[in-house]
Design brief:
The chain has 82 residues and is mainly alpha-helical. The chain has a domain of 33 residues. Helix content is 77%, strand content 0%.
């Protein structure tokens, strides 16, 4: 009987602590959240997707153009490579 009471008490303590942890997690999540996040995140994600896609296209174009360029032998006025 004594063992059974202790196990029930332990189970109650575990459930109590689990409830406290869940409550703390919800409070933390709510305190860190911003009300405009969902709509703002959507526009930011869309913008970043477009930016990354255009960056990849421009990188391909730059590589293809630079592959067809011939290096010049003329000295540039500022000493930089042409």
């Amino acid at each position: 009987m004594l063992f059974r009471e202790r196990s029930e008490e332990r189970l109650w303590l575990v459930r109590q602590r689990q409830g406290e942890l869940i409550h703390e997690a919800e409070e933390y999540r709510l305190s860190r959240a911003h009300p405009d996040d969902p709509a703002e995140n959507l526009s930011i994600r869309l913008f970043n997707t477009i930016r990354v896609g255009l960056g990849q296209v421009f990188a391909v174009v730059r590589r293809r153009l630079s592959a067809h360029e011939e290096p010049c032998d003329d000295a540039c006025p500022d000493g930089a490579p042409c």
